[in-house]
Design goal:
Distance between the termini: 6 Å
Structural class: mainly alpha
Number of helices: 9
Number of domains: 1
Strand content: under 5%
Number of strands: 0
């Protein structure tokens, strides 16, 4: 996640975003250069109407796409908030059912460590990368290659074991399993957002609309009597529409292991500190509060 930090924060953010758009902006310059020597064919009395119609259509589709993209980003952030809350609720529930016995203490400690491992494992799976160092070692009792779903299932097995051994009653079992089920639901929502982006055919159509308007606008402007000023304005207009469409593309993928991601590892550090204490190595944020990017 890109953040504006310090007095020059907005400038640094702008530079970083432009760098991510570099190939698209380069394409704008190249296409504009190719259009300049071509005779203008739409400098007619109907060209203004054509430009207005295409511009309205492009604006509607790009606006719709960016609205959907932001909604996907916000839903993912909300679901991660639910994961954080449910991890804390699990920790509170384990504290509530703790009888102080040595046998139970070992199980509760394992469940807390597993809950933290689950959060890190989920973030890594959503990004399609291996978990950070030290995550698998949180629970030596579990397989090194355990998935997030598998870890939740092992949590359920431990809850069943506590119930079968008489350490918790039926109500406590339901309470803990309700939290576990909430994590399952949040994980399913996050996986849906990660695995089901906007349909490729619609994505291509909106991108085509942005480029068609950009080309028509530039072709119209470079025929102006104010030649050089019109070229600059045309380039800016092309860059604006192409960038608006691409930014929507980036935002609608909040878990693709890019700088536009949600700071999922920072969420996991928070969960680690809540359940295992702020002194745990994984509880320390991977980036400082002054960092331009949080991952």
């Amino acid at each position: 996640m890109i953040r504006s930090v310090g007095r020059v924060g907005p400038f640094r953010v702008a530079v970083l975003v432009v760098w991510q758009l570099k190939y698209n902006l380069l394409a704008v310059v190249v296409v504009a250069g190719l259009l300049l020597p071509i005779p203008d064919t739409v400098q007619t009395e109907n060209s203004a109407a054509i430009l207005s119609t295409v511009g309205i259509a492009a604006s509607i589709f790009i606006g719709f796409r960016n609205t959907i993209a932001y909604n996907r980003w916000w839903e993912a952030r909300t679901l991660w908030g639910a994961v954080i809350n449910d991890c804390r609720a699990m920790n509170n529930g384990l504290s509530a059912v703790d009888t102080g016995s040595a046998a139970m203490a070992a199980v509760l400690d394992r469940m807390r460590r597993r809950q933290v491992r689950y959060a890190w494992q989920l973030a890594a799976e959503l990004r399609g990368v291996a978990p950070p160092a030290g995550v698998a070692e949180l629970t030596d009792e579990d397989p090194p290659g355990a998935t997030a779903t598998g870890l939740l299932n092992r949590q359920a097995q431990d809850i069943q074991g506590l119930s079968a051994s008489g350490h918790i009653d039926y109500q406590a079992r339901v309470m803990l399993m309700t939290v576990n089920a909430g994590l399952v639901a949040s994980q399913g929502g996050l996986e849906r957002i990660r695995n089901q982006p906007m349909p490729i055919q619609y994505d291509m159509f909106i991108r085509l609309m942005a480029w068609v308007f950009a080309l028509v606008a530039f072709n119209r402007l470079d025929g102006s009597t104010h030649y050089y000023g019109a070229i600059v304005i045309g380039l800016m207009l092309m860059a604006l529409f192409v960038s608006a469409e691409r930014l929507g593309y980036f935002i609608e993928r909040p878990m693709d292991n890019t700088i536009f991601d949600l700071p999922m590892y920072r969420f996991c550090s928070t969960i680690t500190g809540n359940l295992l204490g702020g002194g745990h190595p994984l509880a320390a944020p991977r980036e400082s509060d002054k960092a331009l990017i949080w991952m």
